[in-house]
Amino acid sequence: MFIFQFLLLLPPTLRCFSKFPFPQTASSLTRAFSQSTSMSINLHSHAFSGNPLLSKFPLPGNPLSPSAALEALNARISLNNTHSSPSPSFKVLPFRNGRPLASSSAGTGDSPPIWDLGWLGLDDLRGIFENSGAQLSVDLLVYLNSSSEDDAVYWAIDVSDKVPELGSNNAAGLCFVELRTLMVATDWSDLQLMGNLAIAGHAKALLEWHNFSRFCGHCGEKTVPMEAGRRKKCSNDSCKKRIYPRVDPVVIMLVIDRENDRALLAKRPMRIARLYTCLSGFTEPGESLEEAVRRETWEETGIEVGEVVYHSSQPWPVAPNSIPCQLMVGFFAYAKSLEITVDKTELEDAQWFSREDVRKALTFAKYKQAQRTAAEKVEQMCKGLEKNRSLASDLNVESADEQHASIVVPGPFAIAYHLISSWAFSDQNVVNGVECNSKNPSDL
Ligand SMILES: [Zn+2]
């Protein structure tokens, strides 16, 4: 089954972390990143992982815990008390139709613009609701976590059918942007931005899960939030089923022909020409991940797989098919047979590619150019100069050097890139300006 993987991205310079709201967490991420310059896997390296708000949840009794924060939030909203204690501060990230509120600022020198998340204070949000004649209620807010360093609690809210003026007044420099666009616009070496991207991905996944779990699947009654929106339960007293946020595991595998030093890459029926990537598919109930790798590979290409070796995993909250969050679980899969029979209902093409061909695709891809294009698009949107078009139509994904590379492969924000590059360049740490924090398949 197809999982959409886009191309692109990444300049090499690290920017400072002056805007990062969680200095100690940022430091720990920095350490993790610097420690990963060897060929070991850096679990913070994948886009949408390394969320600084997910590293620790406060225990019950802590004033920043979900229950205590919810109580404080309830008091401030229901009492309309604007003069209450400023501690803790509440920061809310609004979403509209799955798009987070964002801003953009100029980069330094020749570097691309830098996007940021559009956090709003509680009083500002309440004012925006009041101006629109909408009611801000506690149940709309979903707890993301807190930060003791800045004494703040972070929330997300879906404002899709409310407060229409939010994001439309470009004087404020704020607009709602597709998460995929932000993903491509993110400088992969900027840990602050990578952390922000992960926060937005987590928030988007939680809000989408809330949207489609409004009714109990057992009795049909309405569900209500629990634990400040981190869980839900059925409102029917005779049912009371608990409902947990949904994660869908997807296997993604680079199938390797050891004998002939080739890798199997497939082209999905999509508009992005020349894009070849790893095979992938959802796991079935009752199936192990390794079994899913073998089954999907056989179904889509007729190749039989023997050994299956885990590589790394990546949260993927930007799938196009209304699934809140897939967990991409990456593997190397070693082929036992080599003859390809393409399932034309799933794939347009599948071929064995030599290591040399794959190296060319990685070497001549213009990831940095694509990142700049997306970052400039976000800047234009926040100025009100461009509408939110689909990503595929914006990006010149054919920008890879066709003279030197016959195919293009997904960019560094996709786990497919890391599977492919760690096989193709198993002897190098940096490829085309992108740091490879990946396991060498020859070491497995
Ligand atoms: Zn129920």
Automatic annotation (TrEMBL):
It holds the Pfam family NUDIX. Its cofactor is Mg(2+). Residues 245-375 form the Nudix hydrolase domain. SUPFAM superfamilies: Nudix (SSF55811). GO terms for biological process: NAD+ catabolic process; NADP+ catabolic process. This is NAD(+) diphosphatase. The lineage of its organism: Eukaryota, Viridiplantae, Streptophyta, Embryophyta, Tracheophyta. One of its GO terms (molecular function) is metal ion binding. It is an enzyme of class 3 (hydrolase). One of its GO terms (cellular component) is peroxisome. PANTHER family: NAD(+) DIPHOSPHATASE (PTHR42904:SF4), NUDIX HYDROLASE, NUDC SUBFAMILY (PTHR42904). Its EC number is 3.6.1.22. Keywords: Hydrolase, Magnesium, Metal-binding, NAD, Signal. Residues 1-16 form the signal peptide. The keyword DNA-binding does not apply.
